[in-house]
Each structure stands twice: as structure tokens, then as C-alpha cells.
Amino acid sequence: MRSTRRAAWFALSACLLLAGCKSASLGASHPSSSGSAPGTPRPGAPGGSGRTIAVGAGPQKTYTVQQQPAAGSCHYRTERGEPLEDPKCTPGAISPAVTQANLKSTICRKGGYTKDIRPPASVTGKEKRLNAASYGYTGSMGDAEYDHLISLQLGGDPNDPRNLWVEPADPGHKKGGGINNKKDPVETKLHTAVCAGQITLAQAQHAIVNDWTTALSSLHLS
Length: 222
Hints:
two-stranded parallel sheet; two-stranded antiparallel sheet; 5 helices; alpha+beta; globular; single chain
């Protein structure tokens, strides 16, 4: 009788052990529980900035002049010979109205999107002068662009002060020649890639926030 009970105990233990091993192996094959949605770049992945981009108020029926950083508190930096924004003053902000799921009805729709949500010059003109003081910009206002760091065609917020800065002209630009910078073509190429499904909206936004001068190369688009 004792030998029978002992055999039964060993059999039960072996069964439990095998079941536990099988359960562990199945658990190891489960996807990561990071919470990232499919297509969302992870920190450190191409186009990932390692931080969250702020979400602005989105398009408004009526825009008002937004408060800008204190005069002289923002400082340009230079990468590959191009002027870049101060990430403390202009970290970027995205519009809640544009998502990966609604690209076809927003930034990728035929007929355009940005013209319907762009703040009027009566608002941005005043903001531009205030922001020029924030950055200590003293050059020609006609040669500087009041730029959306994350452009409207990439789902940037239209009038969040975190997403706007006075972008100086490119080095070598002829004074009085008007606005003409190398960032605009980069934004257009990213927009084309997003709408073609080559990259995600989030990847494009993070690449611009990281450094627009390397945005295309970081996403293998150049």
C-alpha cells in the first residue's frame, strides 16, 4: 500500500512539474506587454525620440495670440550648418485631430488639409514678433519663417506655442530674398512617405523633433 501511494505521489509531482514547464514556455512566447500599438516606434527605434510629444488643443474655429517664452530665454543651436530650435522653448506639439487611423481624411486627403486649419496672419504675425524676441532674433523678419516644428502636413498643432518658432534663413541665404529654407522639402518628403505607408505618422513626428536635418536619413528615406 505504501509503495502504491509513493508511486502515485511521484506521478502527480511529475505531472505538475511538466505542466509548470509548459506554462512557462508559453508565457515566454507572449508579445511584450509594453502597451505600444502596432506601428508605434519604441524609444531608440528609428524615428523614436525616447520621450512623449505634447498634445496641443488642435484646430480652432477662432485663434488667439498665444503667450511666447520670455524675451531672450530661447537659444538657437546649429547642426550640420543649419539653425535648429531650442528644445526647451520649442519641444513640438501634435494635433489630437490627426491620428494614424484617420490619415486619409486629414493630412492625406485629396484637396489638402492645412489651408483649412492654419491660423490667420493677424494672429501669427503678432506671435512671430514676440517669438523673435524670445529667441533674440534680430535679422530680417521677411527672411525668417514662423515655422511649425512639426509641420501641419505631419499633424503638428496649428497654434500651440510649443510647436512654433522663428526659423532663421539658411546660411548663405541672400538677405531680402524671402523665406526659403531646407526644412520645408524634408517635411514634404516625410508627408509623402507617411501617406504612402512607408513610415508611420509617429515616426515622422519624432524624427522632426529629434533633428530635422537627419530626419530623412534616420528613417532611411534619403
